[in-house]
DNA sequence: CCACAACTATTGTATTATACAACTGTCTTA
DNA sequence: TAAGACAGTTGTATAATACAATAGTTGTGG
């Protein structure tokens, strides 16, 4: 068996499946994918400007600009011009945003608890470690591609 | 550290990243994602009808119907009405389709060889096994959701 | 046995996520 | 200080998807 080929295939299927599952998984009150990821980033890193988010997600600034509109409208993130460089727009998570993030996070944690109910702690930790390693590698590669 | 929560997050990032990487990874002659996955399925399972493919990928029949048009046009899959049930359309991979699939597969195998260059064989096998297990679980869950 | 309901696939239409282009306002530098 | 670089927004285009309407085919209950 060619492990690389199998892995490649499994990753392709995985991406497709996770993507497809988005709609059906999502409970009504949950944040949608882009909002969730943006709030996660702001929660993790503290306030960020639009371009930084675009960079993190490897998306066009215009895409982020559009994705933040509804979550700013909903009061989940605050938007203010940077005082030092007035071109930039600084985004920070609000208390309401934190609450919404926590709710969605909990809802998803539940889902994963169910999905991985029969996995040993060791398996879960292994999977997490390998996924993180793979993600780091992908991030690194994307950086390289930019600087070329 | 909450392993489930970390895992959930890592999966979300992973899906986003793999999705985003699609364009930049894809060499010019390679099959696009939908063509690649459809040819993989036909190669694996033998001839299938449109509805079966839709079921495998959890997509609407109309979506598959549209996705097969270009690959039929390119001669990579053959399309014929089922003789027994003339409503159905039977799809099978052609020799050209097999060749195209093999080429894309090899190109991706190369990419993965590079991405995972410093992984031990053991790590790769572990990751593959865990991914497969997770994918199986997702498939199973989607089945459950349908029958409800 | 046949009319009508169910099913398969296609095509029309709408939505969503995305990128690129044009533009505005701000900054930096020669 | 004028010219170019930069950050973000908004307009427009494209791609992937779902749902609705339709056409052709099959199965079934009176």
Automatic annotation (TrEMBL), chains A, B:
The keyword Cell cycle does not apply. GO terms for biological process: response to stress. It holds the Pfam family MarR. Keywords: DNA-binding. GO terms for molecular function: DNA binding; DNA-binding transcription factor activity. Residues 4-136 form the HTH marR-type domain. The keyword Cell inner membrane does not apply. InterPro entries: HTH_MarR-typ (IPR000835), MarR/SlyA-like (IPR039422), WH-like_DNA-bd_sf (IPR036388), WH_DNA-bd_sf (IPR036390). This is DNA-binding transcriptional regulator, MarR family. It comes from Alicyclobacillus hesperidum. The lineage of its organism: Bacteria, Bacillati, Bacillota, Bacilli, Bacillales.
């Amino acid at each position: 068996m060619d492990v690389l080929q199998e892995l490649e295939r499994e990753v392709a299927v995985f991406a497709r499946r996770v993507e497809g599952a988005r709609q059906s998984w999502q409970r009504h009150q949950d944040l949608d994918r882009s909002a969730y990821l943006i709030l996660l980033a702001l929660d993790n890193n503290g306030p960020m400007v639009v371009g930084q988010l675009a960079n993190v997600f490897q998306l066009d600034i215009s895409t982020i600009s559009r994705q933040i509109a509804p979550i700013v409208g909903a009061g989940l993130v605050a938007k203010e011009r940077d005082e030092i460089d007035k071109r930039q727009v600084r985004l920070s998570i609000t208390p309401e945003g934190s609450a919404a993030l926590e709710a969605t996070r909990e809802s998803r944690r539940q889902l994963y608890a169910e999905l991985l109910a029969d996995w040993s702690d060791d398996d879960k930790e292994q999977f997490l470690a390998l996924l993180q390693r793979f993600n780091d590698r992908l991030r690194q590669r994307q950086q390289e591609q930019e600087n070329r």
